[in-house]
Amino acid sequence: MIYFDNAATTMIKPLAVGRAVLRAMQTMASPGRGAHEPAMQAAKTVYNCRVEAAELFKVPEPEQIVFTMNATHGLNIAINNLAKEGTKVLVSGYEHNSVTRPLATAGADIHVASSPVFDGEEILYAFERELDWAELAVCTHVSNVFGFILPIYDIARLCHDKGVPLIVDASQSAGVLEVDYTRLGAEYIAMPGHKGLFGPQGTGILICAKAGEPLLCGGSGTDSIPQHMPKYLPDRLEAGTHNVCGIAGLLEGIRYVRSRGIGEIFKHENCLLKRMTEKLAELDGLELFTEECKEQSGVLSVRGKKISCEDFAAALAEEGICVRTGLHCAPYAHKSAGTLDTGTVRFSFSPFNTFEEVDGCCQFIKDLL
Question: Going from the N-terminus, what domains does the chain have, and what CATH number goes with each?
Answer without folding.
Answer: 2-11+262-368 (3.90.1150.10), 15-260 (3.40.640.10)
